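Marked as duplicate of an earlier ticket. Keeping the data here for the record.
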Amino acid sequence: MRARVEFRWPDLEDRGTLFDRGHACELLEIYAGPRDGEGEERFQLTVCTPAALAERLDEHPFQIGRHWLFVRELRPDEVTRWLGERIAALEAPTWTELAEKIGRIGEWEFEDYDDGRA
């Protein structure tokens, strides 16, 4: 099984191209589902430039880097193309296993979900 994906930059949608590409820290949402099936689930990560990270560290000296992607400049089309290629290369026998692999890139909305049946 492989995934189909769609990307959304919720905060950039309002601003369009009005942001500093060299100093940006933006949420990226990845909506993915089985390529040959219906439905989708949300994964998200923060895409951040070194300048924006340095500013964040000035405010809060400790940052955990899980589900972060660091880029020299924020170029949304290049980021989504690069991530799309990586996700397209992932394969697993079931959707849950594939979603867990995608979840290594972006936080899966069902990460650590426990349906109580265990």
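See parent ticket for discussion. The beta strands are 3-8, 25-34, 41-48, 68-70, 107-108.
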